[in-house]
Amino acid sequence: MTHPLPRFVLAACAACCLAATLSACAPLVLGGAAMGTLVAVDRRTSGAQLEDEGIELRAAARLRDAMGERTHIDITSYNRQVLLTGEVPSEKDKAAAEQIVAKVENVRSVVNELGVMGASSLTQRSSDALVTGKIKASLVDDKLLQANAFKVVTERGTVYLMGLVTPQEAERATNLVRSVGGVQRVVRVFEMISDEDLRRIATTPAKPDTTPRQAP
């Protein structure tokens, strides 16, 4: 008989995994790598998932070439919509980062949530990782939500929610996240789908993607 892990254990495990990515102090963090979405249960097609990974890699390389180590920018692509979070020294850098990412191949849109300020501390990033872990555990606990349908990004206490979700799922997830300790604000970056779309996604078998991908 299998016993589910306690909620606090799930949160701790998720936080530890995320905190491990912070220990290298990399100025650019790829959303896909940090969140680890499972292909088998993701609502995106396998091709879209691979494309999102490619977008994150290409965007990271171009931002690093253009801005070096002076910025802390997190890049999260979901269904070709790119969320930029983190910190940059000036409004000019913020605008430049958006322009660079918008020109990356196959990017559909850019949501620029970069803060103009000094880079956040490791303490703040560890706190954000813990918040993300608690949110993911709460989503797993909620039997009316599919946890892997959501991508969660936390930056300085602000939680960004991404995913292909119905309006009902979006509302329920938002209310759930607002109740999690440490969450200061919730920003929804969802792509809304209908109940009919959801049923179609659920019944459509995944197909292997053989499209050649461009290197970063």
Q: How large a portion of the residues is in β-strands, by DSSP E?
A: 15-25%
Principal-axes geometry comes out as globular
Q: What is the overall pLDDT average?
A: 85
Low-confidence stretches: 17-27, 32-40
Oligomer: single chain
Query: H/E order of the elements?
Result: HEHHEEHEEHEEHEH
Specify the number of helices.
7
Explain the overall architecture.
With 216 residues, the protein is of the alpha/beta class. The protein has two domains: 7-116, Helix Hairpins, CATH 1.10.287; 122-203, Histidine-containing Protein, Chain: A (2-Layer Sandwich). It is 44% helix and 21% strand. It has helices at residues 7-22, 31-35, 46-67, 91-102, 122-141, 167-178, 195-203, and strands at 28-30, 72-78, 81-88, 109-112, 115-116, 151-155, 158-165, 185-192. The strands form two sheets. Strands 1, 2, 3, 4 and 5 form a five-stranded mixed β-sheet that branches. The chain has a three-stranded mixed β-sheet with strand order 6-7-8. Strand 6 (151-155) and strand 7 form a beta hairpin. The longest helix is centred in the N-terminal third of the chain and has 22 residues, at 46-67. It is globular. Mean pLDDT is 85; it is low at 17-27 and 32-40.
